[in-house]
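Quiz preparation item.
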């Protein structure tokens, strides 16, 4: 079943489609039915030989021009002559299409109205734009990023006017100690393109700047002609430094904007793109400090784990630990020796008993020779048992000797001494390890001494 629209719904649907398909258009035609009500808005009709189009130009978007005229939306200062809209005038209108619901008609909401001469400039603009695009002037791959927070910036602009004042005001607020060198030039008129090209080349070759900013205030298409010419486009394209172009207000797009490494909507926006907010820099410093603290904490944790592992390894390999393990092993052997002796004695007694029983059974049959052989075997068996116990006793005595020799305090009983520095407990192995006045702890076989070094003799020198 087909949807049944109300008039409002259908009108809204048509408006959505129209505004979505034509968000911004340029239209050329002749002005007719011009009205200027007390509201300040301007209503007129654009027409040609075959059609008409209703146009509304709201007061907030109007910029009639005239020296010193300030644009109500952007604050840009107009540098051209006044513009008077009148019936019969050929104009070029830029704006968006919409539907005026109370009448159910579509209309053009104008953002910019210029004389037909500007239309010719617009066509020349499009032709040059296509030509330079084919030559690769606008390719994103060739465009360079701006240096972060540059300290030296060259500005190509008119030395007076709102554009340079806005740029310098923001540079002072955001530049954080940067230096700016202004290359003065005309930005409008026949001499402007040549001066802009010369200024760009000077900024690129004097060895001062890290980035170049090309800026000027807003104006009509005729006023911006210097920024839509081939010479300036080539100078921006060939500049060895990154170039920021901020020309006009936000709706203005010049050829220089398209060639630039970075396009800014206004001169003020150019300064904002070059330098970050100081609060942003402070935040970056805080974040870097937090990352540094975290990394230092991780480093300390890793070093602590390594130190703990080294301490455990040192404890396991220390002489005291080795001596303790030797003592434990000796204790186990001493405990096992009586049990081994008892087992061996038991086995020997059992064997002797078995032999004696067998001998008893065979006694009637033994001759004198056999009796003597049996006696010799008994003697050998007894001697073997004796040698076994002697070997075990020798092994026990060897282990006891090794244990005694491993004791670091054993030499002290023979008159030696163990000398340490009182300050840190370090062993003193050479006279060069101390100096006069050093306090010493001396461990003897019985008791200990505290001493102070009076003098130090080099190695080999006899007392």
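Solution:
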């Amino acid at each position: 079943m087909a949807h049944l629209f109300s008039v409002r719904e259908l009108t809204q649907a048509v408006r959505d489609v129209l505004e979505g398909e034509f968000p911004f258009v340029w239209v050329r035609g002749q002005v007719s039915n011009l009205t200027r009500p007390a509201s300040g808005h301007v209503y007129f009709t654009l027409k040609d030989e075959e059609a008409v189009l209703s146009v509304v130009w709201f007061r907030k978007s109007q910029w009639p021009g005239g020296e010193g005229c300030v644009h109500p939306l952007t604050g840009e200062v107009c540098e051209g002559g006044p513009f008077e809209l009148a019936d019969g005038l050929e104009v070029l209108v830029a704006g968006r299409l919409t539907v005026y619901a109370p009448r159910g008609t579509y209309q053009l909401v104008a953002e910019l109205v210029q004389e037909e001469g500007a239309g010719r400039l617009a066509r020349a603009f499009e032709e040059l734009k296509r030509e330079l695009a084919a030559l690769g002037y606008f390719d994103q791959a060739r465009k360079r990023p701006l240096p972060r927070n540059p300290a030296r910036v060259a500005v190509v602009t008119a030395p007076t006017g709102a554009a340079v004042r806005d740029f310098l005001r923001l540079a002072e607020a955001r530049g954080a100690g940067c230096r700016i060198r202004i290359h003065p030039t005309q930005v409008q008129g026949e001499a402007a393109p040549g001066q802009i090209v010369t200024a760009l080349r000077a900024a690129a070759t004097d060895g001062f700047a890290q980035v170049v900013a090309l800026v000027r205030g807003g104006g009509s298409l005729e006023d911006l002609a210097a920024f839509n010419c081939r010479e300036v486009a080539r100078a921006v394209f060939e500049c060895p430094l990154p170039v920021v172009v901020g020309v006009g207000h936000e709706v203005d797009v010049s050829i220089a904007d398209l060639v630039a490494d970075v396009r800014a909507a206004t001169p003020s926006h150019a300064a904002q793109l070059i330098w970050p907010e100081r609060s942003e820099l402070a935040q970056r410093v805080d974040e870097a400090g937090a990352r540094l603290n975290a990394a230092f904490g991780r480093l300390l944790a890793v070093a602590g784990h390594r130190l703990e592992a080294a301490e455990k390894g040192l404890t396991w390999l220390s002489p005291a630990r080795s001596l303790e393990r030797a003592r434990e092993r000796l204790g186990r052997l001493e405990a096992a020796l009586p049990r081994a002796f008892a087992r061996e004695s038991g086995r020997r007694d059992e064997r002797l008993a078995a032999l004696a029983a067998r001998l008893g059974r065979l006694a009637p049959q033994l001759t004198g020779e056999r009796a003597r052989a049996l006696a010799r075997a008994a003697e050998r068996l007894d001697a073997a048992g004796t040698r076994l116990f002697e070997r075990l006793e020798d092994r026990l005595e060897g282990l006891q000797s090794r244990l005694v020799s491993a004791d670091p305090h054993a030499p002290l009983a023979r008159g030696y001494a163990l000398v340490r520095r009182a300050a840190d407990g370090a062993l003193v192995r050479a006279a060069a390890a101390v100096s006069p006045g050093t306090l010493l702890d001396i461990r003897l076989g019985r008791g200990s001494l505290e001493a102070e070094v009076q003098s130090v003799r080099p190695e080999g020198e006899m007392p």
